[in-house]
């Protein structure tokens, strides 16, 4: 299979949400598994998402009802989704994280998901193949990346809030790298994405 430098990248052709709509594979709730990248469409039961309500619900200065990112492992993952949201961080930071995760996954079983010709095995076949990198936790990923934590970009959702899930599969991994910018699904509206990114860097590196 290819090294990270050799896979075709997005490089501004589509936003993450646009990519998910084009190449994302719709998944039922029982098909959503940690260690993979998903686009989620979520809902919250509040009349309006003002700045105050966003902070109250999310504990952050933003909320994203259309996150795209890595579903992380934890003991209660079947009921609560923890998503490392690539939209909540600067593209250069997300590109570094994606490269590190690709390399980490290669060292921990990713190659087994491809056949001898380098083609990705079917989803049905891969469901029977457990790999160590599927069990990546927030703290383990922070350790791999050498940062204090990634909490500011980790969004929490009750699985009952998820209206739609789309898998961005490994053969389209490069579409996550350096995407076109978007604030689709992000609140409050209007939102200052530069401030969200600055807060991410401050919280991650401090």
Protein structure class: alpha+beta
Alpha-carbon Rg, integer: 16 Å
Q: Give the fraction of residues assigned to helices.
A: 25-40%
Helix-strand pattern? HEEHEEEHHHEEEH
**How many strand segments?**
8
Number of domains: 1
Overall geometry: globular
Give the integer mean of the pLDDT values: 95
Uncertain regions spanning at least 5 consecutive residues:
none
**Strand order across the largest sheet:** 1-7-2-4-5-6
Structure description:
The protein is of the alpha+beta class and 206 residues long. 28% of the residues lie in helices and 17% in strands. The protein has six helices and eight strands. The protein has helices at 16-23, 51-58, 91-107, 123-126, 138-145, 193-205; strands at residues 25-27, 37-42, 63-64, 68-71, 80-85, 154-158, 162-168, 186-187. Strand 4 and strand 5 form a beta hairpin. The model has no long low-confidence stretch (mean pLDDT 95).
What attributes characterize this protein structure?
206 residues, alpha+beta, 8 strands, 17% strand
Secondary structure elements and their pairing?
Blueprint: H1 16-23, E1 25-27, E2 37-42, H2 51-58, E3 63-64, E4 68-71, E5 80-85, H3 91-107, H4 123-126, H5 138-145, E6 154-158, E7 162-168, E8 186-187, H6 193-205
Antiparallel strand pairs: 1-7, 2-4, 2-7, 3-8, 4-5, 5-6
């Amino acid at each position: 299979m290819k090294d990270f430098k050799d896979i075709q990248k997005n490089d501004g052709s589509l936003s993450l949400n646009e990519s998910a709509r084009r190449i994302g594979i719709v998944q039922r709730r029982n098909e959503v598994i940690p260690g993979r990248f998903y686009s989620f469409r979520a809902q919250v039961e509040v009349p309006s998402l003002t700045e105050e309500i966003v902070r109250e619900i999310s504990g952050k200065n933003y909320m994203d009802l259309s996150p795209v990112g890595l579903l992380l492992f934890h003991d209660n993952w079947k009921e609560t989704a923890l998503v490392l949201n690539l939209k909540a961080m600067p593209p250069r930071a997300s590109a570094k994280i994606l490269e590190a995760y690709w390399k980490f996954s290669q060292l921990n079983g990713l190659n087994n998901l491809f056949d001898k010709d380098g083609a990705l095995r079917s989803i049905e076949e891969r469901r029977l193949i457990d790999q160590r990198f599927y069990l990546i936790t927030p703290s383990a990923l922070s350790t791999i990346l050498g940062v204090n934590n990634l909490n500011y970009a980790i969004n929490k959702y009750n699985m009952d809030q998820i209206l739609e899930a789309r898998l961005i599969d490994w053969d389209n991994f490069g579409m996550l790298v350096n995407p076109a910018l978007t604030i689709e699904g992000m609140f409050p509206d209007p939102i200052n994405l530069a401030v969200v990114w600055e807060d991410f860097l401050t919280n991650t590196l401090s």
